[in-house]
Amino acid sequence: QVQLVESGGGLVQAGGSLRLSCAASGNILDILTMGWYRQAPGNQRELVAEINIGGSTLYRDSVKGRFTISRDNAKNTVNLQMNSLEPEDTAVYYCKALVIFTGGATANHWGQGTQVTVSL
Known about the structure:
The chain is mainly beta. 0% of the residues lie in helices and 60% in strands. The protein starts with a strand and ends with a strand.
């Protein structure tokens, strides 16, 4: 079993900052990629940022220059520093990990989600 536990969501005014954290635990050999997705009411879940085991990152265009993703491979954690937040960033944010198990099998796992609300 793999568990992803997220923390750090909340309510912030536009222009403010929040830091999301996610810790993975369980019978994990390694984690190939870790990322953050978000889903606003009425919208599909969308990629916000992703980082692979080598440290290469991918961001959606609307958050480039404002959000920074980082990970600690030894601790199986991923963080998302969000600066200059905008009301359009309001959503439930989900952590995702592409886990590899002993034997080579891989599987995506998701956290339970954390609410981020940005007010005017």
